[in-house]
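tool_call: predict_structure(chain=1)
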Amino acid sequence: MPVAASRKEAPAAIRVDLAAIFVSLELSRSKWLITSLSPGAGEKMSKHIVAGSDVPALLARFAELQRKAKARTGRSFRMVSVQEAGLDGFWIHRILEREGVESYVVDPASIATSRRRRRAKTDKIDGEALVRALLAYKRGEPRVCAMLRVPTAEEEDRRRLVRERKALTNERIRHVNRVKGLLFGQGISGYEPLRRDRRKRLDDLATGDGRPLPAALKAQISRELDRIELLIEQIKQVEAERDLMLAAASASSPAPALLLNLRGVGPEFGAILWSEGLSRQFDNRRQVAAYAGLAPTPWQSGQVDRDQGVSKAGNPRLRTTLVQLAWLWVRHQPDSELSRWFKARVTKNEGRYKKSTIVALARKLFVALWKYINAGVVIEGAVMSA
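tool_result:
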């Protein structure tokens, strides 16, 4: 009996008295759908539409919801809102928090939906599903959805440099391939548009049948070279700004400098690792691997038990960089514990499954780097750069 009495006095894990007005926002360019559930209004959810990007109308609707709830119950209630992560970014979330609204941004893929082949889907249905997910989350139900940790405006802006460099590099690759393709159609191979003597070599080129380059083709390639040279200059400017960003970050936090001290980690990899992942706050190593999309995905039911590979649900830029860094880690850090583990695993499998093993190494490496810059746990066997 005393044990039973003590259990009744213990606080419940699930909250039941939330005392708030719950609101979901379905955002589009033309209109915003506001779905709300207020105290004293029963179980029916009210819906209201405002024009897209009309923040004053949105705040006025929130104030009207609070006024009606106070008139029904005689109490004032706080506002709790939720929206899906998407093209709108986080500026609406920042405005709501500045106005005193408890705002959340949810990963839309984490909300449970019907598994029927055909299911109804409208903005109204999605708005109600968001409100139900928010209610369950605030009650404390585990794993009901995944709320994003919204970066600050400074953190969001810091990631622009590495992303812009990647976009410029991809554009440069497209122009280089276009030039090579145009020349290959004339029987010319071996021309490198990124060499400094590209203009001079273009004048000396001849087609496979011995003719000089046609005038229109030569003019087109010349314009392509103009774009390539512009991209080369812009990439240099972005790299200079990236180095300044790393220097400024190293002055406030030792983490970027610790990354650059490792052999095999250059400025580009260091900037991506820091701005895309390691500058964030993680509670445990599972969150670290999940954010990079390197967490395993099991499939187990009855006697069926197999692994579907990594989830790929995290940051794709960070995941790509980690896999590339894992290959470089084996080359530049051959005596480290992680490299020895990789070589032993590949040897055990007789050289097979090397790609899947390098992904596992990327996950282990990211967790090791997180421990290294946050807790000072030195990676065993790692060598520092000169």
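agent: The first strand starts at residue 20 and ends at 27. Proceeding to next step.
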